[in-house]
């Protein structure tokens, strides 16, 4: 295969709760997970807005309790969805989401004292920008090309919106691949190298917000997905919510106060619940202590693993139903699975191990690849494969998660491409005009499993402008699903032996070109602001360092006592001025600190020069 991308190419796992970035290292012949500026290999998918700056990742998550209404997380639960479909989530978020144009959700924040709204794509783009910068710092080179992963169960709108987010982040999105497929690549490369025998692999990926299962076969570097199933709304956060509700109720009962209306208290409780949940994956009881949770009252309690399992049992069972559905769909028997691979942070929960082992009749589960990093690892391998010459080709054959079709008379869903069909694929369908001189035909494209078209997800209202002709004019519509699982529609009309491509306009397109351009411009402005802040922080740091150095010099008896009194007075004045600048003038421009430092350095250098010359 021709390698058509120049420059470094990275793999990004853009998670609901944590994101991870990796790059292929040719010299080591493996992918490297890149740590962020805090030294962490995964970065919280959080973006926060304050009165003077925007924060992304650890910095944003760390201040969430004190700034809950402007700290945005769960953008992945919003992306590519309509406002009406996210009503349950809205109840749980401390930040405000409203219905924007075309029922697209808008996230409202207060930034630098002004109200601002963002699309989920923009928040995701900020996270992608952060991951791109983490990689650029590590590679010491700008990064443009990336493979981004999405849950296998993401629908067409969610995939397209993720590509848009990548574009806004200044990335060239080489491919979108499914998270479990990426994890299978990581597993195949790390644990099953040179696997010449066909192996059936079952990937169980339970993260913070989404659940995916995937059944694949691997043989000689060919990864063929047989079936996927999942829920884009099931994961660790749901377990946290259940535990939070449990403690909110307990607090109400024992302390007679209701914290449910206080976002700051809820955030602190959420953090403690998440910690307790992690502890329960290896201990049978976890304590939970939150000082002054609400109105100065402490929360001091504990929860057993049995209780945790009890309050989440229906969710665990839901996971197992989805596992079962994947086998029913694939027509494959569960006994033919060679490896059951667990990934995603929530796959560490012991109850799920037990349920899975029962399902697979005692089979050992594979937990040897890092569940937090496997997806990014696989994405980096794929990115390298598309851009680096020395890495062997891997062949991926993925499937679409939901059936695609059009609405025909009587609101019937006419399925053209059934779910779990291998992609890429092209399917054609011929439509005929109903009346003479029909100038337009409207095609409604849906995805989903209901036989009633309007109960499925409407992907697009495609409007075709036609040449005037008697009724019965045939128009061939072509459904082309690309390797990313994204649908592209085209149409052809044949009159007098001439084939003509007809322009299709999607009247339900999510973001217009102008909107996308505006977002790119805004993202660039944000980046320029970040760079400005970084420069200012550096200038302040440099001045601070120099101030410490000068204090040491003048207090050193051997040198300090030799400085002439006039110079000493000047230096003391400059020391005080530096301190004042650093303490009180955060609003000063960068050049004020840089210029003052230069002046200060010249003054001290000249005083020291005089000593060295014995003047
Ligand atoms: P996503 O890809 O959706 O962002 P991850 O795969 O990074 O999610 O998993 C994050 C989720 O895993 C969080 O909800 C976190 O609380 C949960 N998690 C991490 N470690 C553990 C553990 N030891 N036990 C239970 N849950 C865990
Ligand atoms: Mg994940």
TrEMBL record:
UniProt keyword annotation of Zinc present: no
Q: Which GO terms describe its cellular component?
A: endoplasmic reticulum lumen
Annotated keywords: ATP-binding, Coiled coil, Nucleotide-binding
Q: Where does the protein end up?
A: Endoplasmic reticulum lumen
Name the Pfam families on file: HSP70
The record's comment on protein family reads: Belongs to the heat shock protein 70 family.
Checking PANTHER family in the record gives: HEAT SHOCK PROTEIN 70KDA (PTHR19375)
Q: What is this protein called?
A: Uncharacterized protein
